[in-house]
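Q: Joint fold for the lines below.
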Amino acid sequence: MKAAAWICLLLPLASTLAITLGGTALSRRTAGWISTLTTFGAFVAAAVAFFQMLGESASERTHVTTSWTWLSAGQYHFGFSLLVDQLSVMMMLIVAGVGGLIIAYSLGYMDGEDEERRYFAYMSLFVFSMLLLVEGANLLLLLAGWGMVGLSSYLLIGFYQERHSAIAAAKKAFIMNAFGDATFALALFLLVEHTGSLDYSSVFAAAPHGGTVANLIALGLLGGAVAKSAQIPLHTWLPDAMEGPTPVSALIHAATMVTAGVYLIVRCHPLFENAYFIQDTAAALGALTLLMAGLIALVQVDIKRVIAYSTMSQIGYMFVAAGIGTYANAMFHLMTHAFFKALLFLAAGIVIHAVAGEQDIRKLAGVGKLMPRTKAFFVVGSLALVAIFPFSGFFSKDPILAAALQRGWFGITLYVIGMTGAFLTGLYAFRLFFIVFTGEPSSFVREHHHAHHGQEGPVSMMATVGVLAVLATIAGFLQWAPLWTPLTKWLDPVAPPLVEATSAQEWATSGVGITIGLAGIGLAWLLYSAKRIRVPRALPVLEHKFYWDEAYDVLWYRSSDLVSRGLYAFVERPLIGGSLVAVGRGFSLAGRDVGRLQTGLVRSYALALAGGLAVLVVIFLAVR
Amino acid sequence: MHGPDIQWYVILSALLFTTGALGVLLRRSPLIILLSVEIMLNASNLLLIAFSRLHGSEDGQVFAISVMAVAASEVVVGLGLIVAMGRRNIELDVDKLRTLRG
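A: Joint structure:
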């Protein structure tokens, strides 16, 4: 078990090092295969750990293994320790499994790209960082992984480094994540001060209950989670992050990294339960995000950005789940979302790959006729996203809303928002599907579509998307509340739920959820496929994404710009610049006067010397 | 101990030093100024030797010899400068050398 955990963690690191050090000695193909196989190796190791854990009783499934003391400062010691328990093994399986599939997909997608090796080295680095994040046995290692996934995300968003927009997006993502990292680190300082440790078990045992400190700790952690998971108000980086290659969007900005915030809340749930107000805030932010992202997704015209907004929206559901304390459902939705969102992104990637990199859905219209299999994959992903039975989203999304009903008025508000979000999901998901995949191919598509050797895409791409399509279809049957709930039972020792929906609530929510989802799909069909209703003009507030970017621009950039201009005009130029000029002029004038003393007459110098000496002698004698 | 008392030596030395200092301050020829400087140096040498004899220690004599050596080198440089001035037909008058006036 412990060996498996270490192998799982270190294989991707070995791959990064091998590809980086190997340099041009490795062919591009080899680099891709090294990355793919090590990630699958990590998945196998995670699976081994999982099966070993299955053989143990529920109470002894937590294993901590320390390799060495990583940091020591005074009486504080932090080990380089891994924690393998029910929660981390689940995350290991998701990260390594989905990661392996997506890196395998990249073999085809990135083929012929310049600097493929760099890409695969970064991807392996990301997988390593993410595994460190989920396997670390103390908050310090979690923070280290947290920062490193941010770094790999930055590197991969900016992968096309000759594109200006990619560099800008990478910097934006990094800065917003750094803000979250900072609040996260502040929370850790408070924890060290008040508990003297950062190991999960001792922190949770000694953490302060209620009061300002507990609230501040939870707030700091929430800040980190919100930044990483692209929730309001730190969400604006995620849509821009779509500048990266499509598999990166699938792996980092949909399936794994952005869900790290959900993992953090579930992992640290005792700290959030000590500050219930902050936990409710998490749920409220999730609800706001899911609604807002759903609305914005309605008017986006970039295929990847629509999916990016749907990612924000789905993570909003997970935040609602984590915020009201139905942790297993949050993790379950995280898992199914990883499958179907990776599927959607990768299917979109096949389309983008086939039409020379075009992403505008108005130009892509009707491409489905030329790519029937991709169309099938996309419809599976969309149905799972809209949570239609029997696709996986159905099993994971509705229990979240059902559980919300246990929380009184707050819960009912969340429920209504969640259902509105479900309607929007149906509408935007199938708007995308109907525009891009149904109808006659547009002239752009006819002109630019290239089949790959008579296929829709390379084998590596079609096969991995196929696997994800199967997973997105069947993975939901892992848990069907209230009929069978193995996942809830599995996670119960780590994160026992705070609320549990009754059977009646589960069934009712499922019924309402499907109806509303279908209503959304139906409206999308009327609008975009049958065209019975004219599509209304997009509201400017949606096209400007609720003015978040503009607000941040005014709040941070323009205001500081204004302040610095003011300081320049009223302080720098008159006071600092002016005073320096005055000092210089003063010395110049003084120098001109003092210069008169320099007569050039040697004898006057000698007289001054003798006179000075005489004065000194007199003083010396007088003072003595 | 034979010879005059120490105060006579001091008085003679003071007279010599004043002569030299006045020569430096009042005369304009660099040659004479050099000579006057030598007189000032010798005034101090006289004091060194007188006190050395008074205290019965050789330190003052050692210093006097050092001063002579320094004075000799100084004269070499000074005379060299004066010869160079003469070769370039520069008038031997220190008041005319005022290039360094501020």
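Q: Anything notable?
A: Chain B touches chain A at residues 21, 24-26, 28, 94-95, 97-102 (CB under 8 Å). Residues 52 and 60 of chain B are 5 Å apart (CA to CA).
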